[in-house]
Amino acid sequence: MEAIRLTRAKHGRQEFCxxxxxxxxxxxxxxxxxxxxxxxTQTINLVSRSSLGQLWDRHIIDSAQIYEIAGDRVDHWVDxxxxxxxxxxxxxxxxxxxxxxxxxxxxxxxxRKAAFLRTIAREFDLPVQVFADRIEDLDQLNADxxxxxxxxxxxxxxxxxxxxxxxxxRALFHKGAAFRQELSEALESWTFQxxxxxxxxxxxxxxxxxxxxxxx
Length: 216
Hints:
Blueprint: H1 2-19, H2 24-41, H3 55-70, E1 76-80, H4 88-98, E2 103-107, H5 111-124, E3 128-131, E4 143-149, H6 154-164, E5 165-175, H7 179-186, E6 190-198, E7 206-215
Helix pairs in contact: 1-3, 3-4, 6-7
């Protein structure tokens, strides 16, 4: 079973290299991040153990795709519920090469996961501040981008985005096959401008890019 898992992980890494144009240094950092995540997952539930064999395609590629969607004009990126580092750590590692002045805030209320994220930030000298708090308990973060992956329903994420985004900011949310239902429910209480990007890891899923978020 382990051999099968490693083969799948290797395939996912190759696929990442085919999709994303990164330097050998960036790829080496992602390799090291993968190793640390696997080590910590032995004692902390950073990701489900069943997904470790598909770590690159299910988590790293899925996270990396939002980096290009965000564009270049981003100074402060806030990631909600970063957990094992997705998408926050992946996009922060990519930014070291392409946007070294970009700063990140990771919001993770689980203390053990927050400790892992601080370890990763030190290991790779990432410009990251980790908040071991709930997002609703924080003062306004004034973000250019807010991201979240498998954290909460869209109508709740919009509440967080309205509070912590700059007026010109964008929210980037991974959503699954039921995203249209979530959009419909959210529009009962919110207005927003929305763009949809089909996920490159799941044809039924999307990344929602939302702006001009306001309560009805």
